[in-house]
Each structure stands twice: as structure tokens, then as C-alpha cells.
Records
---
Amino acid sequence: MAIRVLPFTLAAILLLLCIPFVFASPPLNSTSTHTLSVTYCPSSMPCTRSLWDIIRSCAATLFACTWTAIHPNVPGMKEGRVVIFCRRLFIMVLALIAPELMITWATIQFGSARTTAKAFNEVIDAQPHRTRNDHPDIEMSSLLSKSSTSDESNDSGRNVTEWTTTHGFFAWMGGFMLYCDDEPRAPLTPDELKHFVGEGYVDMPDIDEADIESRSKSDALSKLAAILQLVWFVLQLIARYIQNLPTTLLEIDTMAIVTLACIAYFWWFHKPKDVRRPYPVHWKKNKADPPALHTLTYEKENPEFSLDDWHDYLIILIYPMRSLMGTCVTISRCAVRQHRIPSLGGYDDKERHDGNHVFTLVLGCVSGVIYGGLHCLGWNSLFLGYRELMLWRAASIVMMFASLLFLLIFGLVIVTNYSVHDSWPVKFPVAIVFFVYVIARITLIVLILLSLRSQYPGIYETVVWDRFLPHF
């Protein structure tokens, strides 16, 4: 898959490196760089829109798109609304700061969900026709036979629902909770669910896609409102470009963020949204004793959270990036205590060199190049001074090339099959590139805020929509 994707990746990178500079380049006879004078007061001329109108439009677009696009995992059953709201708000802030990481997170979740759905469907389809001798996976071939014969009074004649990508998403987002003695134990990974069902310790979950969707809080009205807000915002930018009206740096940054948010929403389209309660999977006491404590995946806290060594603090600092990139699911003590999966997890991180991870890595790096390339549309915008102008250009280029460096580092890990890729030869350069990227992103945010102090006169002019109407 990586070989087939590589030519498209290179073509996209070259295109994005050229298009913004062509559209934003100054005229051929221009020999100076324009800056904005802070002595100009927009109140001296009739303004058809104010600064607060611009901020309000961008804020509404950002909130509508990012809040709608984010599909969080199943929270803890005892967590309140405030905690759930704050966690989702934290994810939304991450989406505003590094929207390309939302794409990698959504992509790896989609790949894991699709792979899980195929695995369960292969078992369901193969069971009536295959035996222990001709099925390559003995445990998976017995997945339904043991569960169907465990309770003759309840399970005889029961039809097993075919799994879809929605089922795969639901399984990876902590949708199946193991109950022992009617008490919640921990969420099950799809591999653990298959193993326990295959051994007859639990019943195969009988839940179809409609039941999963009924647990989701997603509604068509909120999606429609977000789409209308996005369409109106994009139409305004296109119309301003056609009528040669300048655009603020805040609007350019908003356009870049919502573009990547739409890509992430595409991969999350079939994922249930805002599910509050998992599906109970009860352990059969008459079959075997429950698993020992701290043996399930989501019962084991990552050792980095012990903070025994000084470098554990660095790992904790960059763990959101590692989790969103799909390289490692970090299980915190809080997640174990609340019987939930990590808020930034929900995917398979065992096979880091498989096709899903390679495709996620390439798409994430391409998204980073797109994000930096869109900011290059402000290459010749009017700034308060020459220093701010050069900082904007440098930060935009750094964000593009930081994504390429990530692709180079992890690409070498995949190509060379570096087995100890979590060691310092990889951690140190990744931490440096991540630090440089954060500095570049903070620089852009600061420049956007500084640009709000004084704007070019044309910024306050609105689009004259009558010019697009035919006149007879």
C-alpha cells in the first residue's frame, strides 16, 4: 500500500508547495514588501463589517466544524457531564492546535475498525462450512460454536449479526464492557472479546448496527448546521478573492483547520458519536474463573505514568502526540480507575508496521504539508512590520517540513524494521521535531492575534453579492 500511495504523496507535496506561492506571489514589477501602518483607523471610513464580525464568523465556523467532527470514545460510566465536556473540549483544543493529528487519529481508528469487522465476519461466514482442521485459526473457528453451545436454553437458534465498520468502531472505542459478578471489570479489546467468546467464557454480543446507532447522540440537525456554516464561510472567502478583497490571517487559519477537520470527519463518518454506556458482556462463572486482576489490556497502567525516571516526564509531555499519531496507546491511571479506554486511544497499536499504520503515517504527513501550505496563502499579507512578515513565512514553511521530517524518521523505522523504535535514537529526533513544530504553531497563533490590532482598509469591506447576479 505504501508503494502505491508514494507517487500520489509526492505529487500532492509538489502541488501544495507551488500553488500557494503562485497565488500569493507579488506582481513581477514589484520590488518592495508592503507592511501595515498602525496609524490607520478604520473608523474614519464607512465599514460594512467590524472586527468582531470577523472573529465571530471564524469562531462559529471553528466550533461548528471541530465540535461536530470529533467522535470521542466511550467515557467512564461514573463520570459526570462536566468531566465528559472538559475532555471533549480538550480534544477540540488539540484539533485547533494540530488538526493534522486528528486525521491520523481518525485514520488509524478507521483502519482498526475495518480490520476488526472483517475478522469477525470471516469467522461468522466460515463457521458453518469449516472444521478445526481446515481453518487457519483454531481459536477463531470455534468462536461461535462454543458460545452457541454454552447455554442451550438461551442460545439455540440464535442468529449472529454480521459486523460492519460501525461494529469495529464500537469495539475499539470501549463499547464492550466485561462484567464479573454483575460488576464492571474493564473494557475489552476486540482480540480479548474474540478469545473469550471462542473459549465460551462469554456470549457473542448480539447487537446490530441500528442498536449501536441508537446509543449514538449524533443528529442530522447539528451536522446540517455545521455544513451550512462551513459552506457560507467558504463562499465568502471565494467571493472575496474574486472581488480582490483582502482576507485576514485568522480567516486563513480557520480555512486550514476546517479543511483538515472535514478530512477527519470523513474517516469518522461511521463511528458512533457521544455513546455514554457500553454494551455489557457477562462472564460465565460456570465455565472458568474470571481473569486475574491487571491482566486485561485496559487494566494495566503504562509504566511511564510512574514518573520514576526523568525521561518519563518527557514521554508524558508528548504522549498526546504519540497517541494521536497512532504509534502508541497510553493508558493512564485515571482511565484504569474509571473503567474506560484512553481518551486518545481506540485503535490497534500492536502491529505498527502494517498497512494501516503506514497509510496513516503517509496521510498524516501529507495533511501537515497541506496545513502549512494553506498558511502560505498569507505569504504577502499586510503585517505590522517586516519582522512579522518573515516570521509568518518561516513558521508556515517549518510546519510543512516538520511533517516531512516525521515521514522520514518513521519511514526509516518501517523500512529498516527497527525493532527498538521506542528507544532514544527515535525518541530524541521526534521530540526535537515536535518541539520545533510547536514553536512554529505558537508563532502563527501569536501573529494572528497581533494582526487583529490593526487591519488593512479592504478587510472591513464585505462582498457585494449583487455583482454575481446577471444584469439585463
---
Amino acid sequence: MTLWSLCQAVLLVTNGLAVLHEGRFLSKYGFGRDRLAGGEFGGRTTLRGQVAGLLHAVSYLRWPLIFINVVVIVVKIIFG
């Protein structure tokens, strides 16, 4: 496993987390923004609160992810 493969794997996982829709998926399983803001998870100290915070933080990475994905696609096209 090379560093490039590891970076691609991290990018794929981040893409997968970024596309989760809050209304259709996260709220259904109890990771909605309303529960996070209401302190229902006991703040961000519990594992569930940490995961919910991560899912909401990744949603801010959508535009940088688009740029990074374009760079990776161009590199893959050029170098194979």
C-alpha cells in the first residue's frame, strides 16, 4: 500500500460521509442537527456525539472535496 492509495482511500471515505443527507438519513438514525444542538448526546463527549459532530463537520468539506476529486481524476488520467 502506497501513500497515494492511502490518500485515495481517505478521499473515498470522506466523499461517502459528505453525501449523507441530514433530512433523509442522519435524522432517521438519530444524528440530526437538532439533537446535536439540543445536547441530547450529552454534549460531544459521548461516542455518538463525536460521530454526529464529525458527520456535520464533513458537510462543510463539499466544495474542497469537489476540487480535490478533480485533481485526483486528472492525475489518474495523466499517470494511469
